[in-house]
Amino acid sequence: MEIGKEVKEWVFSISAAILLALIIRTFIVELYVVDGPSMRPTLQHNERLVVNKFIYRVRDPQKGEVVIFRYPRDPSRDFIKRVIATAGDTIEIKDGRVYVNDQLQREDYILEKTRSEYPKATVPDGTIFVMGDNRNNSEDSRFNDVGFVPLDLVKGEAILVFWPVDDFKSLN
Which domain holds residue 39? Predict the structure, then answer.
């Protein structure tokens, strides 16, 4: 009789732990691996990140945040980029410099200034404009394949690099 009770307790404890892990991963935080160089120097290929999936249930992404989103052309793929402009903002890239609402942006985090231009445009409601920090090696909102990213494709905000341990840092 004692063994049966103990087995039931173990089954309950393991089931509760699995359910809790699934809830946390689905709604609160998830771990991601950086794939590629598009966010250098901020993020390096193969770094591991903690992504806050809950934050955008209570507010929209803000300028400067690093976000994970589903690639619009293939929602099974995730992209990671920095939010440059939000709904209602104007965005323009000229002479390798980014302007949001006609204000030159100070971007200490970029690898090098962009070699491309982008005509002045207004970010539509319900979307964001994103770019990689490695501007000349990034598939981002400047290109038709990505374009303005609908908010419903945004999965969460990258908040922490936890691996490799030597690169541990907060992204806020």
Answer: 30-170
